[in-house]
């Protein structure tokens, strides 16, 4: 492990120092790079709206992973969506440790031919994306003033906001100023800069068809028990207990999840027994958004679908443990959207590595009774 870190650090230092001939911009194009998944990309959309209002004539291109294409494909504030399976974000190990660097070289050559005026690296620690922009010869390179990213940038931005919606707005507002514009004077808060979801044609009808086939009428609640990092999950036995109480209170329970979460979801469905159905691996993202929109309440750990529920206006309860709600919590009206945590902190807070298993003490410390009480408060307010 230490040898791998040393080798990676040496390669990165060489990459930052290697001479690069700047490309001559072919057009006034701004390339935005965001390699992350659902929730982090949703957090970007308010900042994109501010950027478009400030620089209406600028061509804005957004590079995301193919997994995030449905999140931004209908966003009217972007001129072009580019997709690329960013190393480290595919959730698969590369066949060789050299693959990320070989891929970087090929993609940099492509971007050099494209020759945008500027690039913005929107993840604060994404040194690979910053190196890519430098290797492509993009003359203006903007990103967070992070030690892993700073050597590749021409304009590092010091971030002061807490939540990542605020930070995205800080980076793109700084970009606006650098490119000669003036950011909007409106506040960066959930009311003035809400999360957005732009519906897809036919998705509402497909969601209704799936719910009808499963025998789900009104009203229903959604439990989304999965999360991208196992350490963020809450025990299945407790989701069963919550589901049973929701059914006893007159709600049907719809369980959602991706293809790799089918077994988890099915175990919870069988534990609840009556009144619960599984839509795991049966919805596209646009259809999932409409399923969430129709719910009375959406509950789950810190995961992208919970933020999607916020974006479509459904009340949400987010269970937080090793990730920080001040950075990644629900961006919405606190009367409708709540982050629930036990308040535990340890030296590994923020470590969401795949090697960390389910069962973190900070998640186990959230009791079933606390979750049910919060659910009831949200349902009473709705």
Automatic annotation (TrEMBL):
**UniProt-listed SUPFAM superfamilies:** UDP-Glycosyltransferase/glycogen phosphorylase
Matching Pfam families: Glyco_transf_9
Q: Which InterPro entries match?
A: Glyco_trans_9, LPS_LOS_Heptosyltrfase, Rubredoxin_Fe_BS
Listed CDD domains: GT9_LPS_heptosyltransferase
Which residues does UniProt call coiled coil? none
Task: Note whether Metal-binding occurs among the keywords.
Answer: yes
Biological process GO annotation list?
lipopolysaccharide core region biosynthetic process
| Cellular component terms (Gene Ontology) | cytosol
Keywords of the record, alphabetical order, are:
Glycosyltransferase, Metal-binding, Transferase
Which terms in the Gene Ontology molecular function aspect does this entry carry? ADP-heptose-lipopolysaccharide heptosyltransferase activity; metal ion binding
The protein's name is Glycosyltransferase family 9 protein
Q: What is the lineage of its organism?
A: Bacteria, Pseudomonadati, Thermomicrobiota, Thermomicrobia, Thermomicrobiales
